[in-house]
Every structure is written in C-alpha cells, then in structure tokens.
Model the fold of this input.
Amino acid sequence: MKLLVAVKRVIDYNVKVRVKADRSDVDLANVKMALNPFCEIAVEEAVRLKEQGVASEVVVVSIGGKACQEQLRTALALGADRAIQVEAPDSPDALSVARILAKIAETEQPGLILLGKQAIDSDNNQTGQMLAALLNRPQATFASEVKVEGEHLLVTREVDGGLQTLKLTLPAVVTTDLRLNEPRYASLPNIMKAKKKPLEVKTAEDLGVTVGSKIRLLGVEPPAERSAGIKVGSVAELVEKLRNEAKVIA
Amino acid sequence: MSILVLAEHDNQSLKPVTLSVIAAAKAIGADVTLLVAGHQCGEVAEQAAQVVGVQKVLLADAPAYAHQLAENVSQLLLEQAQGCSHVLAAATTTGKNVLPRVAALLGVNQVSDVLAIEAPNRFKRAIYAGNAIAQVESDESVQVLTIRGTAFDPVAATGNSATIERVDSVFESADVSFSHEALAKSDRPELTAASIVVSGGRGLGNGENFDMLYKVADKLGAAVGASRAAVDAGYVPNDMQVGQTGKLVAPELYIAVGISGAIQHLAGMKDSKVIVAINKDEEAPIFQVADYGLVADLFEAVPELENAIS
Done:
C-alpha cells in the first residue's frame, strides 16, 4: 500500500508572531520557518507503517513556493521515499489545497492519505476533511491511534468527551492529533541521503486546479492586550482579592 | 437569508454551546433552522424547539446518525442546506469534523472558529494560536462557518416553541462504522461551559497530585483543565487539554497551577475574565497574563487555598 502525506511549511511554533505596523497581515519577514508539527506527526506515522511492513512507499507532497522544498527534504530525511512540490502562490485556501491533493491522489492512488489535523498558522482544521469529501472517501480526524487490519483501518480519535474508535474501509483519509506519536529526529546521514531522493515539481495549472480564494483577508489586528496584573504575597491575600476585588468567588 | 445550524448534542440533551451558535446566527440575522441529527434524540428536538431565536427544528432520527459520523451527517447537511445562505456549527470536535466536509461538497471554503460577526459575509477569527485576529470577507455563495462558543453570549434555552419537522432522508456510508468509545466520566461542570476552571500543568508532577486540584475545584464548583504537558505526561486524559489544539475556555476565573504559560496554552484561556497563576518560577510567562500571581510552591499553596475557600 502506498501512503501519501501532505506537509506544510509554517512559522516555527516557538516564534511569537507580530502583526505588521500597517495591519495588513502578520510579519513573516526573517522569521524561522519549519515543518508544521502536526504534519511531522503524519510523516512519522507513515514511516512507522512502512517499517511495520504495512506500507510499501511513502510519498510526501507540499503546495506553495520553492521554499517548501526545504520541508519536503525534512520529510525525506525522516524516512519518506519521494516528494512532490506543487508550485502555487503562497497561502492558497484550504479548498484549493484539497483540490490539488485530490488530483495528486488520483494519479498516485494511495491506500491511505495522512495529514495533520491543522496548520498552526491558519488554524483552519479543514483540509483533510475537504479532501475526503472530494475523493468521496471515509475520514478519521484527530487520530491518536491508527491500526491497519487488512482492507480496514481502526482509528482512535480524540473527541471532546474522550476517545472514539472508528472502522474505515481503505482507501481513507486520516488527520493526526498530537498524541499519535513522537516524531523522530533526522540523523545527519539521513539528511545527506534525503538530498538524493527524488523531488518532482508540478504546478497547480498542470493539475488543472485554479488556485484562488474567495476568502479575502481584509486586515489583521493584534489581540486585546491584558493589563498587567499584580503579584500577591500569600494565599490569604489571593483569596481576599478574588472575593472582594475581582468578586469571582463567593 | 436562511441559516442552517447543526445542533450539538449527545442524543439526550442539547449542549449549551449550541445556544452560543444560535446567538452568532442571530447576529447574522434571518431565519434560523436547527438541525438535530442523531438516534433516539426526540428529547433533544423538544429542547431545541424551546431555544429562543429558532424558527424551525429539523429532526433526523436514524441509527446512521447515532454517532454523527461526518460521512453521513455531511450528506444530510448538504441536502438540507439547499437554498440556505449560511451553514453553522460549533467549533467543537464534532463541528470541526463535519463542516469542512459539507463546505467541500458545496464547493466553497469554510471560515473556521469565528469569534465575531461583522457583516453576513465578514468575520473575525484568530490565527497563529490567537496571536493575531484576522478580519476576512468571504465571497462564497454559501457561508459555511464554525463558531467559537466562548465568543458569543448564549441565547435563552427556553421561552420559545418552534415547530419540529421530521427529515426522513437517511445517508449511510458503507465505508465507515462506529466501533467503540471511551468517554471520560465526571460530575464536574463541562470544561468549555464552566464559570471557573482550575488547570494543572507539568508542575503537578504526577496524576495523583491532580487530586489537590479536584478538591479545590469541587469547593468552587469548577471544572478541571490541564496543559498539554500534563496530558502528554499521562497525568490526565486528553479531553482536559486547554490550548490551541485542545479546548478553548473563557471562564470568569481561570486558575493556572504549575503551568508555565506556553503560547499554545495561552491561546486556549487568555480570554478568561480573571486569571490567577500559582507557580514557583517567577519568570514563567503565565505571570504576564495573570491578574493575580502567586509565586509559591504549589504543593503548599493549593492545600492552603482549599482551606481558605471552605
């Protein structure tokens, strides 16, 4: 079974973003970029399925400018076999991304498609679900455990009340939650080897998808700042303040 | 304009977050239809009919909808959304699972986790873990939105008597089935709806020490939350996680115990009215957002706190 994993280049999760002075967008100039943490978990899961002998090949795909090849190389260093970059304008909307991935899936015919549950920049949490809909395949979102059993997939999902397990018929689409696995680090020899692995470049037009967006960003503002609080010296003082000043406890 | 809202429920009762989604729908204006999809959920439809602001309740009661699987419910929503200007659901794990599938079937983009309605097609939402608020305008023919419950004051749960209409269509995918679930049991209020939340982090050291927080929470009538570090370390189950990738809360009072205050945790609680931090590290970033900070060893401070509020 072939696995397809979608990965996204995003701002490093440790960076505190700033809104541009003109409030047109956030400032991404000279900011450290990285592989989206949820995508990293998806790659790790795919590589583990290959190591278990369940999967035969792991193909990673990323959509965006040439810079996202860096993240594809990272995925290759983690154990993916080959990569596809789909050249497209930066920050395409989720539906365009899902349409492109659906086209790739048509040619590659993967048995399982893995994506992160959300990208930490746009925080949309949409692409995997949209892709499953376009392919008319079952989906298991927010996965914390994935087991392949013949033609089926047993997936445990993190839902609001606890955990839920679904049985899906392959091919299927799975989006990863944080607790699915602990991604490995790429070793230096693997990073060197990754440079020789195949990386194919396609364009959105080649795939017959017009990347645009009917959702326009009008502007961005910083979130409301909280006014600085005070330090209290004791538990007694804290309780007194909560009772009489903030009036939030009886 | 007519607005279709997917009700959040567990086949027995309507979840309070639905009342906030209806509030968002009323901010858009127009007719609000509430769709209750489930199995043996007649009681939910009865409750839904009483919610102020709801014109009509659609009840789709079939075994296929028992666990609100995205494959089945999205087809039902697609059918019922014909002619609607907006389709809304709560930004819960159910809404997040189902709605993007509906959007793709409709061939439109979705706006996720909306926290303000500026106009029927103009919304505000948080991006980058809540470090920026984006204002977006959508030119899609149908607006598909998930709503951040904590950002809208809930409408009244009673005082209305909307009509209930049965929907007979049953969509059932052969490619997916429910296997089993393990839901956490708790007598405490629901995390996202509680007026007081007490949360623990890595500083608690182990799962047993969370008992200290449960005691304080029980005295305050509070829910208990956790940071990702505490969940990853296995101290508490994942459904207690507060943060960018967990639950978003905005209680009257949030007490963070042994939590450093990483960006992704702050994303889930910084809209709380009053924030208290108890941490022995006075450099911890949580103190930058706390209204009241106590630099102390939590193992001494928390039992003391429990005594002080009794």
About this structure: The radius of gyration of chain B is 20 Å. Chain B touches chain A through 92 residues (CB under 8 Å). The longest strand of chain B covers residues 110-119. Chain B has a mean pLDDT of 96.
